[in-house]
Structures are given as structure tokens and as C-alpha cells.
């Protein structure tokens, strides 16, 4: 947090985001300002906790968060089930679809929490925990001087690919 002066204006910033107001103008209620700071503090505390936990604990905590979201968001639970019904038709039973919906929520929660941890792992640590397979075709095309377009689905922990770029394309 900080305060500064800029050409006759007083400005305040929290977490790098600045709110600019003229000196003496009310910015909102004191309660609103206090609650903004409380929410910012809690968000930073949660991020700090996720970064401090081992990756396996982040994953388990994320699964728990996903299970809670599954329980309290019936509209999204219904939407996920309807999408799976469209995708699988009569191939899956209603019980199998319910299990898939629950697995979707818990996996999404785990990926969400792990993304904050993975962003702060070193490349050697990420390499130790991952394996990249099937890139022989890409390497062969590159060695022949051909261009390659890689498309990753927006499923799973796709944020990890940004950190594995050197492993995937070490040239």
C-alpha cells in the first residue's frame, strides 16, 4: 500500500492497482474501502498459502474446493451434466454421468489451485514432475525445415505448457 502525489492529485494503490481521486474528494464509504482491503488481504493470503503448500497438498485442497463448488452450484452442475449427455448420448448411464460431473468439478478445482503453485516452481522442478511424449513428429518436421502449429485443448492443466516450452521446443 502507498500514497503519493501527482500533479495535484492524491492517489492510493493496493497490490499494484491504483485508484486515482482528486485530493479531498470522497472515494466511497469507509466500510467499502475497508472491505476492499480485507478482500485484497484474504486473496493474497490464500495465494501465499497455495504457494507455500506442497503440490500434492494444493491438488488435494483444489479437489476439496471443486467438491464444494459442485455442491453449491447446482446450475453449473446441471449444465455440465447436459453437456455430457450431448457428448455421450446413451453411451453412459445417468450414474456414470453424475460421477463424470463430480470428477469434472474436482479436477477443475485441483487444476485451478495447482496453477498458482506451478507458476512459482522452477523449470527443473517442473521437468522432474512431468513427461512430454509424442514430439518426435514435431522434431522431425522442424529438422526438415517445415513449420509446425501446435494446438492444445483447454482441458486439464494446460497452463503447464507455457512453462514447458523449453522442454517441448529446446532449440
Write structural notes for this entry.
The protein is mainly alpha-helical. It contains 8 helices and 3 strands; from the N terminus they run βββαααααααα. It has helices at 30-52, 55-72, 74-88, 94-118, 123-129, 136-143, 160-163, 165-168; strands at 2-6, 9-14, 17-22. Strands 1-2-3 form a 3-stranded antiparallel beta sheet, with no helix packed on it. A hairpin with a 2-residue loop joins β1 and β2.
Global mean pLDDT: 80
What share of the residues does DSSP label as strand, in percent? 5-15%
N→C terminal distance: 42 Å
Helix-strand sequence:
EEEHHHHHHHH
What global shape is seen?
extended
Number of strand segments: 3
| Neighbour order of strands in the largest sheet | 1-2-3
Helix/sheet category: mainly alpha
Number of alpha- plus pi-helical segments: 8
Helical proportion, percent range: 55-70%
CA radius of gyration is 23 Å
Largest sheet: 3 strands, antiparallel
Low-confidence stretches: 1-21
Amino acid at each position: 500500500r502507498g500514497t503519493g502525489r501527482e500533479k495535484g492529485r492524491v492517489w492510493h494503490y493496493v497490490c499494484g492497482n491504483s485508484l486515482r481521486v482528486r485530493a479531498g474528494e470522497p472515494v466511497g464509504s469507509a466500510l467499502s474501502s475497508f472491505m476492499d482491503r480485507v478482500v485484497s488481504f484474504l486473496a493474497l493470503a490464500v495465494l501465499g498459502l497455495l504457494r507455500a503448500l506442497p503440490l500434492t497438498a494444493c491438488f488435494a485442497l483444489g479437489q476439496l474446493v471443486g467438491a464444494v463448488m459442485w455442491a453449491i452450484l447446482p446450475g453449473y452442475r446441471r449444465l455440465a451434466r447436459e453437456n455430457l449427455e450431448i457428448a455421450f448420448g446413451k453411451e453412459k448411464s445417468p450414474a456414470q454421468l453424475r460421477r463424470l460431473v463430480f470428477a469434472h468439478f474436482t479436477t477443475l478445482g485441483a487444476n485451478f489451485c495447482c496453477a498458482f503453485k506451478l507458476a512459482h516452481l522452477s523449470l527443473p522442478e517442473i521437468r522432474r514432475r512431468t513427461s512430454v511424449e509424442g514430439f518426435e513428429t514435431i522434431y522431425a518436421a522442424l529438422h526438415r525445415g517445415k513449420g509446425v502449429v501446435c494446438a492444445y485443448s483447454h482441458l486439464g492443466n494446460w497452463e503447464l505448457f507455457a512453462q514447458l516450452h523449453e522442454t517441448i521446443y529446446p532449440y
